[in-house]
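Following up on my earlier thread - several people asked me to post the actual chain instead of describing it. Fair enough. Here it is, all 202 residues.
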Amino acid sequence: MAISTEQIKELRAATGAGILDCRKALEQANGDFEKAIDVLREKGLSKAAKRATREASDGVIEMYSHGNGRVGVMVELNCETDFVARSETFRTLAHEIALQIAAMGPQYISSDDIPADVLERERTIARKQALDEGKPENVVDRIVEGRLKKFKDDGCLLNQTSIRDDKVTIQDMINEAVVSLGENIIVRRFVRWTLGEQSSVE
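Reply from S.P.:
Thanks for posting it. Predicted structure:
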């Protein structure tokens, strides 16, 4: 498939890899952005991947209140140094993540945080729904995997598309900041309160 200049620029911004490497990764992944990142990581070409192993213990706790105090968010975003923690780019990222949590109410930080029993329950529900809808047995597994992916994309902060740009995930935004600032950046934990109920991730 044809790979556009825009796709290459987006992958380069997220990973810091060279233009030619980005093109090859996208071609190998048939244009799939996430798979292309994995290809670059496997080849050790993604700066974001290299920095992901470095200790991030500095950062900021960002607080945000929405709807005249009906929704409140607190998120801890970590980086490696106080210098980066005080930068406008890092502070803006922390604020954007807090806005995302307030608007979209994720339950987990990443799909790795979803308990196995929750995934199994969702898998069982998705399978039953597919069978009840009369889907052929030979396509049920594919339907179940698709619905599980949607569950993860909706419920995990890093998988969610940005409320400002539906072509960019929160993980993409973080990767871009990692490349720009030169440090590992991680969402450590967050809590989101709504009047009358509570959900949190720590």
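The mean pLDDT is 86. That should answer part of your original question.
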